Amino acid sequence: LLARAGCRRNFSSSPSRQQSCMSAWVIDQYGTNGVLRYTEEISMPTINSPSDILIKVNAASLNPLDVSMRGGYGAKLMRLRRNPFTVTDSESEFPLILGRDVSGVVVDCGSEVTYFNPGDEVWAAVPPWKQGSLAEFVTLTEYEVSLKPKSLSHIEAASIPYVASTALSALGNAGGLCRDSSSNKRVLITGGSGGVGTFAIQLLKAWGAHVTVTCSQNAEGLVRGLGADEVVDYTAEDAAEQLETMEKFDVVLDNVGGESEESVMGLLKTWSGAKYVTLVSPLLLSTDSMGLLDGAVHAGFTLHSKAVQNILSGGIFYRWGFYAPDGPALDEVSRLVDAGKILPVVEAQFPFTQVPQAFQKLEQGHARGKTVVQVS
Ligand code: NDP
Fold first, then answer.
1. From the centroid of its chain, how far is CA 132?
2. Is 190 in the pocket of ligand 1 (CB under 6 A)?
3. Which residues contact 13 (CB under 8 A, 6 or more apart)?
4. pTM value?
5. Protein residue closest via CA to atom 45 of ligand 1
6. ipTM score of the complex?
């Protein structure tokens, strides 16, 4: 945010809207698609802190996390994150609004917001502990928001923030890569045809890395078009051999998890600071099934033992990657998009009336980029 300081005039406004209710898709309990309910009577979000921004949502997108959260995934940890002072199960999070990406227009700003003004077109990834973007309005802090790339429509822009924030956090914080350190690096992305993968390929190519991708055969054209240097069809009988004959990798970004973890670990360079980063960690599943404390301890133990095992056997750093909200990082993505180095990959688009159908699409799997919802 320091880089943003002084860019904009200091702005202070008081809410001018008289509207008290808005339309949204909510859930009142966890479950299958039937729990999604459209309403026009959900309270408008308000500016609760001086750094809050109220955004009118033009487009939202769905992520696998939305389907999981609809079913209750991460409920215990998210409840604690929403209100750290209540650790009991009695605090209700309902009605809960899902949707993690937003592209829209600023309608109101808290008194200490310095970088945004009403009327600004913005994009953001809504943290999962906040009310989501499948709604007419959403409130975020200015640290979570960024000016939308001018070259994209709202639909296109909504396809990027959550996967971009995740990929940046996983490749940067956990994988140790950045714009200036990637040109001589070999990176393997598993599950390269999905939301995170299609963004990560482009980011790494913009940073100058050599990128190898695993995906289904019918996704090869897509990932090559985004810049992948080498592609392995993971459904091919000789997929493992193909990967083993390649030069070893500096970083693996694993979007698949499960058996993928075992099979790719041996593909990393040994004793040279190589990193394995998986986005599929058991943290939230553990806290859901075992409770906050036991689940966190269990997950921490799992992470620690895998980290020790891998560092001792080959000097490989074993890490879990997580989404992290970061508006200024999205500013950088915005520049790459407007420079034509990163393209949106919108596979499917649904009107706001068809949010359940959008969830169904996501649940079918085999994503080729992102599923987006036009909200207004
Ligand atoms: P998507 O559903 O958009 O993409 C997954 C992709 O993986 C699909 O294209 C799928 O296509 C492909 N795939 C499935 N199985 C394999 C396999 N064995 N090898 C190679 N490719 C495969 O998911 P996202 O990209 O949005 O997210 C990826 C994972 O990361 C998800 O599990 C998600 O929950 C997790 N995630 C975690 C975050 C965190 O904070 N920890 C944040 C964001 C995502 P096909 O089946 O046709 O091959």
1. 13
2. yes
3. 108, 109, 111, 118
4. 0.95
5. 366
6. 0.99
